[in-house]
Amino acid sequence: MQNQVKKIIKKYRVKDVFTPSTPAKHSFVEREQKTSNSLVKALSTPGKQIIIYGHSGSGKTSLLLKTLERTYDKYIITRCMEGMSFENLIADGFSGLGKYYTEEKTNTKGFKVAPEVSASFLGIQAKLNMEMTSSAAEKQKLLLPPQLTPQQLAKFFGEIKACWVLEDFHKIHPSEKKKASQLMKVFMDTSVEYEDVKLIAIGAVNAGRLVIEYDKEMNNRVSEIHVPLMNSEQLRKIILKGEDLLNINFSYDAIDKIVNISSGLASICHQLCLNICFNRDIMETSDLGEKLTVSDVDAAIEEYIEERSDTLKSQFDKAVKKNKKEDNTNEIKELLSVFCRTDTAEITYEELQTYLSTPPKKFPLHKVKNYLNELQAPDRGEVIVLDNHSGKYSICDPFVKSYAKCKIKQSGNLNMNISAQHFKSILFDEILAAFHKQIHLDVNNLDIESMENFDFDED
Ligand SMILES: Nc1ncnc2c1ncn2[C@@H]1O[C@H](COP(=O)(O)OP(=O)(O)OP(=O)(O)O)[C@@H](O)[C@H]1O
Ligand SMILES: [Mg+2]
């Protein structure tokens, strides 16, 4: 009842507190010291370039933005997309600087740019604008004004003491990436003259080198920072912060359920909390101190499945589709079924091989590595993730895992011709069952013998 008498000092909108699709705002929780300290140190070290990597949704952008707020006055973000050329990248970074160079006349931000640098910026800007309007209609490739070299761009960043963030850098085509690693070198060299200039590349991959392959000579001047998935304590804190800001109150078992189902992914935690609030008509900080229970969580999960069912379907279909040369759908399903064991959260390559080679199975073991690599790529929906630190593989999130389990079960049962609605209810039961069986049991407990009896119908 404590919340009911709480004096509401400030009201927050629920959508600013629970942010499933955008970087964390008011409910930002501190990350592990090691990660945040390395980032602050790298941001504060002149000349140090930064690569931030980790599982999609692990909180890379949120952590960087929060840390930049504390360390840098200005930063430009370029969101990389597939098909983006090196020239597009440079043009985007340059355009991002525009507001600072044009604001310079009014000097609202209280910084001074040397007049000759400003003049050179505005000259290039005029040429680039012309090129961009004509190139859309007439040309395939953007031609940068010759004065807009990577060196010059780095100087423009340096002059206003800004750093440049390249988001989703893993999406850039390998041929363009090579040039971009040179860009990192240019920024590094420019820091001799301008100490704040810095390039930060972020990639949803499991090794820093997969974001940018930089030269060995740069080893000591690049900081690779891994952002892991969130632990239960951090997820719990998101909910507790939300409770505090919105004056609501989740029961203990409701919190446990959200934390467990989220499986390290804060976006699931935010989405479930948001669904719960919306379902209970809570749009902003409550005056009443509403109590939220497990049945609110169940309704939110059901809704979440409903919202994601198309995405889950297309992700699974991508994962098991035939390839051009042969129909390997059944082999991929068999491989995925190992992960679908409710008590198999993460698994090593060796454990997978052991399971797949246990008679009467006749899995072509030489293909396992290839399949695992393919299943991590966008072409197969990125359904498998490899944790480079532990060397273990797992299915990317519990919803995909439960979906795969239900689908494999369905396709193994020829009489199981069910409606989409019925399928969703099976999926819902499966997700709750997975929650009850604690999907994150230690892989050391993996019992190969019991997996032999793996039968979906018994669950
Ligand atoms: N420290 C945090 N505290 C609270 N919520 C967080 C935190 N970090 C991330 N989140 C939430 O997790 C989700 C993913 O965050 P974010 O976009 O920062 O991850 P990301 O690693 O950059 O993802 P992607 O690889 O898809 O770009 C969002 O819902 C965000 O609000
Ligand atoms: Mg991000």
Describe the structure.
The chain has helices at residues 14-17, 33-44, 60-71, 86-103, 115-138, 150-159, 174-190, 232-246, 252-262, 266-279, 294-320, 329-340, 349-357, 368-375, 398-412, 420-436, 448-452; strands at 49-53, 74-79, 162-167, 198-203, 222-226, 249-250, 291-292, 346-348, 384-387, 392-395. With 459 residues, the chain is of the alpha/beta class. The chain folds into three domains: 2-19 and 231-257 and 271-292, no CATH class; 33-226, P-loop containing nucleotide triphosphate hydrolases (Rossmann fold); 310-458. A five-stranded parallel β-sheet has the order 2-3-4-1-5, sandwiched between helices. The chain has a three-stranded antiparallel β-sheet with strand order 8-10-9. Strands 6-7 form a two-stranded parallel ribbon. The longest helix has 27 residues, at 294-320. It is globular. The relative contact order is 0.11. Mean pLDDT is 84; it is low at 438-459. The site of magnesium ion has 4 residues, from helix 3.
Per CATH, the architecture of the largest domain is 3-Layer(aba) Sandwich
Gyration radius, in Å: 25 Å
Main sheet strand line-up: 2-3-4-1-5
* CATH-defined superfamily of the largest domain: P-loop containing nucleotide triphosphate hydrolases
Tell me which ligands are bound. Answer: adenosine-5'-triphosphate, magnesium ion
Give the total of beta strands: 10
> What fold name stands as the CATH topology of the largest domain?
Rossmann fold
**Major sheet description:** 5 strands, parallel
CATH class of the largest domain: Alpha Beta
Report mean pLDDT, rounded to a whole number. Answer: 84
The count of helical stretches stands at: 17
**SSE sequence, one letter per element:** HHEHEHHHEHEEHEHHEHHEHHEEHHH
Structural class: alpha/beta
Report, as a whole number of angstroms, the end-to-end distance: 40 Å
Uncertain residue segments? 438-459
Tell me what portion of residues adopts beta-strand conformation.
5-15%
Number of discrete domains: 3
Shape: globular
Q: Helix share of residues?
A: 40-55%
